[in-house]
Amino acid sequence: MNIKRTDIDALNATLTLDITKSDYQEQVDKILANHRKTANIPGFRKGQVPVSLINKKYRIPVLVEEINKMIQAQLNEYITKENLNLLGNPLPKAQEDVNWEEDDFTFEFELGFAPEFDVDVKGKKAITQYEIKTDDKTINDQVDRVRENYGKLIAKKEVAERNEITGVFKNEDEEIQADATFSTVKIKGKSNLKKFVGAKVGDTLELKTKGLFADDHDLVTLLKVEEEKAKGLDIPVTFEITEVNEREKAELNQEFYDKLFGPGVIKSEDELREKLREDAAQQFGQQTDQKLLTDITEALIANTKFDLPADFLTRWIANNGENEFTAEEAAEEYKRSEKGLRYQLIESTIVKNNEELQLKFEDLQEYSRTMIRAQMAQYGHMDATDEEVDQVVARIMSNQDEVKRMSEQLQNEKMLKFFKENAKLKKKELTYEDFIKEAYDA
Hints:
Helix content is about 50%, strand content about 15%. By secondary structure, the protein is an alpha+beta fold. It folds into 3 domains: about 1-110, Alpha-Beta Plaits (2-Layer Sandwich); about 150-250, Transcription elongation factor, GreA/GreB, C-terminal domain (Chitinase A, domain 3); about 265-440, no CATH class. The radius of gyration is 33 Å and the shape is elongated. The mean pLDDT is about 90.
């Protein structure tokens, strides 16, 4: 078999595979001989079927299968030997029906190459690294929320501020009929709140969805409408009140502390506040880390310029996806996935150039051990032996899905640490409410 590569440009090439009879004849003859031994054809004893009949019945299917196997093996060998950095897989070029009665064949494949480029992690413009203050107000609010969540519900006949209301939202034209429970603290604006306060069980309120709640996402959960539809939704709805409850806050006592964190873990209000402060700092840290990683990713995509073999990738999507795509659908799919592909290539380049970011099997094992010990500790198993942990780790490492999930998680952690040490950052401390407003334009 002869393979010839023709470069079209830096990102595209064609592979031409010339196959002659000598490449496949021996293997095809061997398979046909085996078919002759086992073929069960009426009128002939097993093993005595004429060769001409065997060839007529089996030769082309066997030939097609063997040539396909040969092509795949040769393509893989060539790509490995030439160390080609491809995007997608080789894409067969469209050709007229192959005449399998001939002796020699030619097949062509399109290749799309990953571009070569440099990545400036530091960048010119500093990226904001948020730090959320766990101030007294934040902790006081959390204490109140926890006390309310574990408090008692007291049935009321009339709505007052900070009550929980249960009822049914309706709009026949929009086919909305949704049971909902929410607190009056979710209601936006004094005029809307005034409609609720003083209303009684059994009353039906006339409302407008626009500006009804402080967060438009509440329309998704309470009215059961799709997220896209909830944005700026401006329709009339009725709300029939079926139940009103006042939530009496739980008392700050040992029974309450034990419910929250287990017997004896917390023994005073001061300890409760310190524990909530620690938990909040960890939770806020996760949110600010995710925001930082997202912002750095967006900046790298915007500032790292390189071309992609877009036409090749669009055709590859059309021909190799799980679902069949038209040319227009493939173009749209490529447009949706382009940013993700660009970041994959950027991340791959950063990892290739920084050995400390490259995942090793030992890294995954140790990461898995740490996770297992933490999970065991959560369930009270504080003194797990190395043997117990390693048995669980072995089961995890034998599961490909779990290994993939952990690899992505560990890689993200490594990348975040690398960015914190190398990217140009400016720190900004603010409250959680201000963080939400500024970071997510809420």
